[in-house]
Amino acid sequence: MIWDTIANIPSAQLLAFLAGGLVLNFAPGQDVFFASACGIQGGTRAGILAGLGVGLGVLMHLTMATVGLGAVVAAHPEALRAIKYVGAAYLLWLAYKSWTAGPVDPSARGSVRPWNIIRRGFMSNALNPKPVLFLLAFLPQFTNAAWGPIWQQILGLGLIFAFTGTLVTMGYGIVGGLAGQVIGKRLGLVNRIAAVMFAGLAIRLVAK
C-alpha cells in the first residue's frame, strides 16, 4: 500500500520534505493570488472554494506526474506553450468578467455558486503547466528505491503536498475575503482589484 511505503521513508527525510513543502506552499504564487482574488471578490466562502478547486487541479498534475505523462509534456515545449496561452486567455477572460461586473452589492458577497468557484480554481491550476514540472523536479528528491516502489512514494508524497497546499491556499482565500469586506463596499472596487489580479496572473504565466 502507498501509505505503508511512505512509512518506510526515514523520519528525518519525511520532515525535510514537509518543511520544504510548507515553505513552497506559503510562497505567493499563481494559486495563492487566484484564491485571494476570489476571496476579495466573493467573500471568504469563495476564497475557500477557490482553494479547493486549486487543490483538485494539483491532484490532476500529480496523476500526470505519477504515470509519466508530465515528463512527456515537458519534453514538448510547443505543448507547454499552448497550455500557457490557453491558461492566460482563461485568466484574462476572468479579468474581463470581473472588470465589467459593476459595483459590488455587499449583501451578495458570499452568495456564490460553489461549483462555479471550484471549477474556476481547478481550471486556473490545470491550465498552468508549471505545477506538473515542479512536481517532477521536487518529489523525486525525497524518494529512494530502497524504501519501496518509486511511483508509490511520488504519489504518497504528492498527496501530502497537495493536502497542505490546499489548506494554505484556502487560508489565503479567507484572508482575501476578510480584506474584501474592508476595501470593497462601493464603486466596484472589489471587482476592479480582482480583475487586476487576474490580468496580472495571465501576464505572469506567459512571461516565464
Automatic annotation (TrEMBL):
InterPro entries: LeuE-type
Any single GO CC term annotated in Swiss-Prot or TrEMBL for this entry: plasma membrane
GO molecular function per UniProt: amino acid transmembrane transporter activity
Keywords annotated in UniProt: Cell membrane, Membrane, Transmembrane, Transmembrane helix
Residue ranges crossing the lipid bilayer per the database entry: 48-75, 82-99, 157-183, 189-207
Keyword Plastid: no
Compartments where found: Cell membrane
Transmembrane helix listed as a keyword: yes
Lineage: superkingdom: Bacteria
A Pfam short name: LysE
Membrane topology type: Multi-pass membrane protein
PANTHER family associated with the record: ARGININE EXPORTER PROTEIN ARGO, ARGININE EXPORTER PROTEIN ARGO-RELATED
Protein name: Threonine/homoserine/homoserine lactone efflux protein
Biological source species: Paracoccus homiensis
